[in-house]
Amino acid sequence: MLLMQPAVAVFDLDGTLIDSAADLHRAVNRMLTELGCAPLPLAEVRTMIGDGVSVLIARALAARQCAVDPATALPLFLRHYEADPAELTRLYPGVHATLERLRARGVTLAICTNKPARVTRVILGRLGIEQHFSRVIGGDSLPFRKPDPRALLELLNDLGAAPAASLMVGDSEVDAATAQAAGVPFVLMTHGYHRGPLHDIACVAALDHFDELAGLVTA
Q1: Other C-beta atoms within 10 Å of 74: how many?
Q2: φ, ψ (nearest 5 deg) of residue 146
Q3: Are the C-beta atoms of residues 120 and 111 closer than 8 Å to each other?
Q4: CA 24, CA 219: separation in Å to the nearest integer?
Q5: Mean pLDDT score of the chain
Q6: Is the pTM of this model over 0.90?
Q7: Domains in the chain, please, with CATH?
């Protein structure tokens, strides 16, 4: 069995730690309704998640051929989403206990997500896991974001960790590309929002259940 001893473990958020599709779907459809466009099914919105809210909005508008500038639609979406971003959002099974185990083994935990930082912190607090993370990088925290590796590298530099001595955990092609470009080993959670076949996503391990991660990381 693969064993790792990272100094830092960096996690994606949506599709990795949390299943947020239902709340995102609700906000997207409220935005579309406000713009006079037909709503989208949950399964279709799930395929649009992972590249940040601006891309999500652009994809939703295009899917409904809604002739509205995404920059105009974005504030409408955020108003609906930020009103309650964690009503339907849930942690994946095993997340809380696994984060506690990793911290007990001396691993520093951080988040690198394309979701806005403020709403990320609200969700982490509502779900009771904010205290586990030493640093949170959102899609609006820096001038660049995933898959640009600088988002991940700047976070690791702030924490004093070398890429090769770190670990990234994510659920998508975007996360895998970020980790690969940064020289960070990548663990794939298969329960998330990937778009293509799982076997096409480069990783050192692919896990179906979050609590399997604790078995890879030694003290």
Answers
A1: 16
A2: -55, 140
A3: yes
A4: 37
A5: 95
A6: yes
A7: 8-19+89-215 (3.40.50.1000), 21-83 (1.10.150.240)
